[in-house]
């Protein structure tokens, strides 16, 4: 499993594979900041030629903007060491991060 934290001032480089359907995005609060949480990813099943959104895939994503900096935290894969990082765990970790060390 992996935990990836990315920050950028102008936005994120994204492909269609990185997008999340609007109905899969949950608004959340990270302290006083507004954020977005989602679970799932696009997958191409055997024999298919089109990607399908799989809401139960083990990919969690949390996005927010803090002091003009866009931040994305993504958890993927199967790692017991990361099992505690569910939605609440990711929000708690996000609240401890800063863009001004």
What is shown here, in short?
Helix content is 10%, strand content 41%. With 101 residues, it is mainly beta. The longest helix is centred in the C-terminal third of the chain and has 10 residues, at 87-96.
3D structure, described in words:
The protein is mainly β and 101 residues long. It has one helix and seven strands. It has one helix at 87-96; strands spanning 2-8, 26-30, 33-39, 41-43, 52-54, 59-66, 69-76. The strands form two sheets. Strands 1-7-6-3-2 form a five-stranded antiparallel sheet, with helices on one face. A two-stranded antiparallel ribbon has the order 4-5. A hairpin with a 2-residue loop joins strand 6 (59-66) and strand 7. The radius of gyration is 14 Å and the shape is globular.
């Amino acid at each position: 499993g992996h935990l990836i934290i990315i920050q950028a001032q102008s936005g994120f480089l994204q492909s269609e594979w990185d997008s999340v359907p609007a109905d899969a995005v949950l608004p959340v609060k990270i302290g006083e900041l507004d954020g977005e949480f989602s679970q799932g990813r696009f997958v191409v099943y055997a024999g298919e030629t089109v990607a399908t959104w799989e809401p139960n895939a083990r990919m969690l994503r949390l996005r927010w903007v803090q002091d003009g900096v866009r931040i994305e935290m993504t958890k993927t894969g199967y790692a017991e060491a990361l099992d505690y990082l569910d939605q609440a765990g990711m929000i708690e970790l996000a609240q401890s991060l800063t863009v001004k060390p």
